[in-house]
Amino acid sequence: MVEIRRAETDDAPGIIDCFNDVMSEGIYLLGERYLGDEAFLEMRIRDEFNELFLVAIHNNKVIGVLTLTRESFQKNRHVAFLGIAIRRGFRHQGIGRAMMEMSFEWAREMGIEKICLEVFSTNVNAIELYKKLGFEIEGIRKKQFKIEGNYVDDVLMAKFL
Ligand SMILES: CC(C)(COP(=O)(O)OP(=O)(O)OC[C@H]1O[C@@H](n2cnc3c(N)ncnc32)[C@H](O)[C@@H]1OP(=O)(O)O)[C@@H](O)C(=O)NCCC(=O)NCCS
How far does the centroid of ligand 1 lie from the alpha carbon of residue 26, in Å? Predict the structure, then answer.
């Protein structure tokens, strides 16, 4: 049984652990490890108007995290950037889709009009999911990354709410 809910400050260590676990796989996320610290993350979780943190919980453990971060300026505050990471062993069970659909509700309530994300061109499952949820490819930055010795494109996707 997996529960999806808004994160609380107590979830900060679990969120960092989840990001680090997925980052350690080395092929889905840009970072090698989570760079912020717990206090900074707690501050971001409290900033409910500018950022949404959703967690998926299984047996009291964070097994998935979604972040939706609103841009800062008047000129781009109608835009938010989405990030998502589900731990190995919990993928392809509909958790990612459910978290993203929940995040769209928050975005609409907050007056956000456009959600952007970036994804490696090699991450075909993720791109498939994003397309099913209404994202379109806006651009491609070629050979933006080198992963395990191979060039990978940066796929920029967006969905208008
Ligand atoms: C990408 C990710 C967020 C998707 O979440 P998920 O919970 O695994 O995906 P879901 O189970 O909700 O699947 C939704 C869709 O993804 C696609 N998908 C899932 N598993 C798939 C597979 N094995 N092969 C092909 N497509 C697949 C399908 O299109 C599926 O659609 P459906 O619901 O109509 O069957 C998750 O796998 C993940 O965190 N992966 C590692 C980190 C990562 O890649 N983050 C995103 C970086 S941009």
Answer: 17
pLDDT, tens digit (0-9, with 9 covering 90-100), for 25-52: 999 999 999 988 999 999 999 999 999 9
State whether the beta carbon of 22 lies less than 6 angstroms from ligand 1: yes
* Edge-to-edge strand list for the sheet holding 51-58: 3-6, 51-58, 61-70, 79-86, 114-120, 150-160, 136-147
Ligand 1 pocket: which of 4, 22, 23, 92 to mutate (most atoms within 8 A of CB): 92
Domains with residue ranges and CATH for the chain? 3-160 (3.40.630.30)
Cβ neighbours of 87 (radius 10 Å): 20
Task: For 84-114, write each residue's pLDDT tens digit.
Answer: 999 999 999 999 999 999 999 999 999 999 9
Residue reference for tokens 């796929």: 155
